[in-house]
Structures are given as C-alpha cells and as structure tokens.
Amino acid sequence: MTKVLMKGNEAVGAAAIKAGCKYFFGYPITPQNEVPEYMSRELPKVGGTFLQAESEVAAINMVYGAAGSGGRVMTSSSSPGIALKQEGISYIAGAELPCVIVNMMRGGPGLGSIQPGQADYFQATRGGGNGDYRHVVYAPASIQETVDLIMEAFDVADLYRIPVMVLGDGMIGQMMEAVEFKEPKKRELPEKEWITTGTKEERKPNIINSLYLEPDELEEHNIRLEKKHELITKKEKKFEVSNLEDADVVCVAYGTTSRIVKNAIEDCEKEGLKVGLIRPITLWPFPEEVFDEINENCKGLLTVEMSMGQMVDDVKISAKGRWPVHFLGRSGGMVPNPAEVVNKIKEISGGAK
Amino acid sequence: MSTIVYEKSKGLTDTQLHYCPGCTHGIIHKLVSESLVELGVLGDAIGVIPVGCSALAYKYFNCDVHQAAHGRAPAVATGIKRVRPENVVFAYQGDGDLASIGTAEIIHAAHRGEKITTIFVNNAIYGMTGGQMAPTTLIGQKSTTSPEGRSEEHSGKPLKVAEMLATIDGAKYVERVSVDTPANVRKAKKAIKKAFKCQLEGKGFSIVEVLSTCPTNWGMVPNEALQWLRDNMIPYYPLGNFRDFEEGK
Question: Is B108 within 8 Å of A196 when comparing Cβ atoms?
C-alpha cells in the first residue's frame, strides 16, 4: 500500500475510522482540533456519528453511554481538557467499558500553553481520576506509530474492556509525515454480551455500573480489576531498546523526546561514546523488566522529558538503585535540543572527550 | 372468588425499594415503568440512573440501565441514543443532580433536541447526602446547609427548571406535575407517557418535572409533607404544561 502524507491529528482520525470507530464525542481545544474536525467531516461518510459536546465532561460521559451500548467510540483532547475528562475515565474504568482517548499534550499546569509538552505523564499513568484503576497508555513517537497504535488501541480496549489512552503531544498532532495504514494483528475479540441494547423482554437487564455499596462486593470488584491489570502488564508491554549490553549511558525517553534523544545518541556515537536507549511505547504498563538488560558497568541513566520530571519516577523504580538516574527536562513548550542532551550524556559518562 | 384489580408493573424488578417511608420516588418509578409497558417499549428501554437517592434505581427498573456520574445522565443518555436511535432512552434525575451539578448537560441535551426523555424529581432538597440545600430549596426553607432558612440575598431564588428549559427550542415537551394526590398521580402518568411519545415520534427532547416529597429531610410525617408540598411548592412551582409538540406550543 502506498504511503500518504498526513498531519498527525488527521492521521488519528483516519486510523480510528479504519479501525471501525463509528462514534466520536469531543470539544475543541488546541493543539488537537484537527481530530474532531476530521471526524466531523469523515465519520458521516461511513455511517458514523460525530457530536461536538458542550464540554469535555459531557464528551467523556457521552463516551460512557456509547461504549456501554456497544459503540466503537473515541474522544480526543489536550491536557486541560483531559483533566476535565478524568471523572468520566474513572467511571469508564470502573464499569469496564472499552474506548479510546487521545491526549495531544500541551504545556501546563493550568491553562499552560498550546505548545508541545509531556507533563501529563502522571495524569495518564497514575490516574487523574479517583479510585483503584489503570488504563493502557500508548506513547507514539511518529505519525506512523500513532496510526498503528490507534488501530491497535480499539482492539486492546475491547479485549480487556478497558479505556486505552494514546498519549501524543502538540508536535505529534501538528507535524506531517508519510504514513501507511496497515491491518493490525488479528485478535480474538469476545462477543459483547454485556452491552445495553434493550432486553426485548427476553433476557435479564444488562447494567452498566461502577457503584458497589457493599464493601466486600467493591473489594471483590477491585481484585478482579487488578487481575486484569496484571494480565495486561504481562501481555501488552511495548518498548524499543538499543545497545543496553555495552552502553556507558542509557537514555530513557518516550514520544517526541525519544526522537531528539536518538539524534543525540547518533552524535555521541560519532565521538565514540556508547549510548543506549530505552523507549517505552506503553507508559502503562511500564516496561520495567527491560532495565534488567542494562550492563552493570553502565555509568548512569538519563531520562529526557518535556516536563520537570515525571517518567523519571518510573525509571528510578525500574533501575532499583543499580545505576544513578539523571534527568534532563524542558518545560512550558520548550523542546530539548540534541546538543544539550549530548552535553548531559558526556557529563554522566565522565566528562567531555 | 377474588379478582385481581391491581398488579405490580412488570417494568419493575422484584427488588425491594430502599426509599424512606412516605418518599414519592416509588410512585414515580411505578409511573415510568407502567408507561413503558403500556407503550409496549419496555424491551426497547435503556434507562440512565443518577447520583442521589435514586442511585440504586438500576436495581429497580426491569430494563437495561446505565448508572451515570453526578449530573451527567443527559450526556450518558445522549451517547446511548446516538448509538441506538431505535431504542427508548430515558434519564431519571433528582434536583441536586439535574438543577445543580448537571445544568450544562441538561441544557445542552435539550438544546440539541436530543431524542431522550428525562424524568426530573424535584423535592427541593439533597436527600441522599442528608438534607442539604438544593438550587430548588424554597426561600425560608431550612436545610442542613441553610440552618436559618434559605435567603434570597445569600443564595438566590430557587431555580425553575421547567420554565427555563421551555425557553429552549429543542425541548418539545416540558411539563410539571405533582404526585401529592391520586388525581395528580394520574395526571403525572399521562405526562410521562406523553413525554415518551414525544421521543417515539422523534420530535425532540422531553422532560417531566415531578414535584416530590422528602419527609425524612423535611422533618415531617408523610401526610404533613404532602400538605407542605401543596402549600409551599406548588405556589412557587406551578403545575402545568410549558411546551407541547402536539399543540405547537
């Protein structure tokens, strides 16, 4: 199949429709506006429904309704808008409904900026909503990977009955790259016997719910959710690694930042430095075990983020004190440049050569 | 020989209701379920249940149900109806849920002319949380958060939801009823049935505001509560129709 040049946000929409998404509920916010715009244009052509909600809060609750009734459904937003959706995400996770949520991150906190950022890592992986819940978080680093992960996200959501977030940033959303729409690997998806379709007075009511007033029932529910989280942790981790066995320094970065880090690694290699990379593609579940492959003589890990330091917590957990963990972060819409990453790598590896 | 003159609606499950003695939620549940059965759409119905006293109603209605977050029932119902336009979708909300935290959702569901039916139970107080002031609490009415009685100066006047929604073009049927007397219960049933008819005919948004009692949090016995409703609520919240798709109003 031939490649087409597409803007990230539009590629999100195209991939979703290719994956069978029929319903989209959203609210305008920069830098993701091309997603709802694309869906408003294209969904009706495939018999789907686009609806602009009155708020992000309403949009995610429309998703709750649509997913419970069996629709393949997506919503998208950017940081402050995703903050507003957290209540709904918690309910969706609690009621075990499948849906895809796209966050094209911008600078924060508060209204922040409209420039790219990665400061929603905590929000995405720790749950901005209440209660013991998790959801899958994919962090694509290119438009091609965005397309692939969006398509896979719908199947993963259906398979585990869990919300799946695709966490990009203003850069991923706004830049253009050549993409190819490939069929994701086939998964056996269970029949949705639990959805609300009307009983036809032929079966017991199906109930979409996250309320369990009896403590023992809620605990049992939470234990069941945790078992599901464990299964996903075992089966669905994705990551990219290079040179862990002989690297002097290993960089850890995701999404847009990982591309800058790759440039910095190439520059270091030209100077004879051995630098490895761990690029988590699933931020939850976080690819903890891959850190065990880092050689014991490695002088340190360098986490690079467009934040003041969030994923670095997971890197420290995964490093288990075996190597010093350093951090380089830019924030507020500032993007780190390869030269500053190179300098930091040199500093960790024992000074400039 | 005995003849059956009254039966529990098959639109309700056999689960015992948890409502306080004298609460009118039970009557309103019955009217909704009887309406669905009489219109022949119980098997097509999908309900949306709120947060508040009726949060457990997903156990009572004998149809598919979503339990929604506080105030979000109209948005949840919108999502359901857009996926399943052939189904009959209704939201059941209290006054804290609809008139306070969920004002954006109810106004915009009406504004879009969403083809859903909302049953709005107004008892002028937060019941489930223990009797706090609602947007619908009357001037002078005491609650746990207006211990000296609601004052207009401090909290404004109570919100008239039916009148407000009747200003929105997408709302095709808006009526306020009460369930304080057998005659009013019959009128309430007629209104609820008509609201569902509005949806079945694809006209647009429909809502029935039902004035209801909360003897527990009003601190009254059931009969006193019904009389208080008549003496205080009905004069401020007049019963009647505010919009009717059949009368071009």
Answer: no
In a domain, B230, yes or no: yes
| A4-235 and A240-349 share one fold | yes
For residue B114, the chain A residue with the least C-alpha distance is A51
CB-CB neighbors (< 8 A) of A22 in chain B: 83
Structure tokens at B198: 């509005």
The pTM of the full predicted model, rounded to 2 decimals, is: 0.97
Query: How large is the C-alpha radius of gyration of chain A?
Result: 21
Mean pLDDT of B62-77: 98
Which residues of A fall within a CB distance of 8 Å from B77? 65
Residue B16 within a domain: no
DSSP code, position B14: S
Partner-chain contact A55 B104, CB within 8 Å = yes
Would you call A47 exposed, middle or buried from its count of C-beta atoms within 10 A (0-12, 13-18, 19+)?
Answer: exposed
- Which of B14, B15, B44, B82 to mutate against chain A (most A CBs within 10 Å)? B82
Tell me the fold of A240-349. Rossmann fold (3.40.50)
Q: Number of H helices and number of E strands within chain B?
A: 10, 7
Determine, yes or no, domain membership for B116.
yes
* Cβ-based contacts under 8 A for chains A and B: 144
Q: Where are the domains of chain A?
A: 4-235, 240-349
A206 near B CB under 8 A: yes
Q: What is the interface pTM, i.e. ipTM, of the complex? A: 0.97
* A196/B66 touch (CB, cutoff 8 Å), yes or no: yes
**How many angstroms away from the CA of B27 is the closest CA of chain A?**
21
Across A125-153, average pLDDT = 97
Distance (Å) of CA A13 to CA A133, A169, A349, B60: 27, 15, 43, 40
Give A-chain residues touching B111 at CB under 8 angstroms. Answer: 54
CATH number at residue B65: 3.40.50.970
Distance, in Å, from the CA atom of B32 to the CA atom of B9, rounded to the nearest integer, reads: 10
Model confidence pLDDT, tens digit, residues B153-199: 999 999 999 999 999 999 999 999 999 999 999 999 999 999 999 99
User: Distance (Å, rounded) from C-alpha A16 to C-alpha A147?
Assistant: 8
pLDDT tens, position by position, B169-180: 999 999 999 999
- CATH tag, A4-235: 3.40.50.970
**Of the candidates A156, A142, A135, the residue with the CA atom closest to the CA atom of residue A283:** A135
Total domains in the fold of chain B: 1
Decide: helix, strand or coil at residue A347.
Answer: helix
Question: Sign (positive/negative) of CA torsion A225, A230, A231, A232?
Answer: positive
Domain that holds residue B161: 25-242
Taking alpha carbons only, the member of A74, A124, A237, A105 closest to residue A169 is A105
- pLDDT-derived band at A351, boundaries 50, 70, 90: low
In angstroms, what separates the C-alpha of A32 from chain B's closest C-alpha? 22
Query: What pLDDT does A352 receive?
Result: 46
pLDDT digits (tens, 9 = 90+) for A118-136: 999 999 999 889 999 999 9
